[in-house]
Amino acid sequence: MNIGIDHGYYAIKTRHFSFPAGISEYSHEPYTLQNTLEYGGKFFVCGTGRQPILRNKMENENYYLLTLAAIAKEIQQRGAKTECSVTIAAGLPLAGFGREKKSFREYLRPSSQPVSFQFEGIPYKVTIEDVKLFPQGYSALMIHPELLQNEPSVLLMDIGGWTVDLMRLDNNVPNAATCRSLELGMIRCIDEVKEQVRRDVGLSVTDAQVERVLAGKPCSMDEDARGIIQKQGRLYTERLLSAAMEAGFDLKAIPVVMLGGGAAVVKRNVAPQDGLCRVFALLDDRVNAEGFERILGRLSGGVGKG
């Protein structure tokens, strides 16, 4: 089967799931098997918080282990056999696509096949037949081609956990010379919000609370802290829009397609006085993973394969 996986700094996304990219290792079986991967004689609880930022996601085996967890979740969701063959469809930012393609492919598909592991107590034996890599962001437009209709130029803004990847498309074709990557993702936003709340009202709010308030969802919280979080969300949006303009993109001249985990936050804080040309927000953070899978499905002869 084909399984699309988006390996984010903040979360791992597949067609059906999105879970935090954190992972905790145990030498013995933990208190619960929920989200627990057993591999190589060790236990790993997947989806716990977030791991330290790595300049290179291949520095350790964490993202490989999270990939196995993602595969197991999709196999279970799709009712497939636990002994099967899989082709992974994953992505890389266009700016570093050529540089990282070979090493990331080898990282996700070790030479020793099949791979045996247990997830939530269920044994799996998976042969990773191949790994196909596609450009992040651009792949998501496979699901929403209508956003490019009648638009000669569009800015794609993928607001991820650590980076915000920018790319202009001219006549539906990515302009590689315009690719930029800003270290202004949602992890930085959330950390700065939490620090501001600590300074102003002396409360230590959690990532989950900040995310919920930024998204405009109900949450029991001190009203002063809530106001600070909302204000910081607007300040983050202003900073991001300013950085995009400084990178050479005139947001008042060309429409913007926003996606990624931070798209909902930025979209919610875009004000009329910003004077942006037009903003489309793809609010499902799984859209990249679904795009990877759909492209692979077409290349392999069937969108519905897997």
Automatic annotation (TrEMBL):
SUPFAM superfamilies: Actin-like ATPase domain
Domain of life, per lineage: Bacteria
Matching InterPro entries: ALP_N (IPR040607), ATPase_NBD (IPR043129)
Actin-like protein N-terminal domain span: 4-138
Alphabetized Pfam families for the sequence: ALP_N (PF17989)
Protein name per Swiss-Prot or TrEMBL: Plasmid segregation actin-type ATPase ParM
Source organism per UniProt: [Clostridium] leptum DSM 753
